[in-house]
Amino acid sequence: MATLYVIATPIGNLEDITVRALRIMKEVHTIFCEDTRTTATLCAHYGITTARESFHAQSPSSKIDHVVSLLLSGHDIALVSDAGTPGISDPGSLLVSEVRARTDVMIVPVPGPSALTAAVSVAGVGVSEFVFLGFLPHKKGRQTLFAEIAESDRPTIFYESPHRIEKTLESLVEHCPTKTVTVFRELTKMFESRVSGTPSEVQAYFTAHPDEVRGEFVVIVS
Question: What residue ranges define each of the domains in the chain, with the CATH number in brackets?
Answer without folding.
Answer: 3-110 (3.40.1010.10), 115-221 (3.30.950.10)
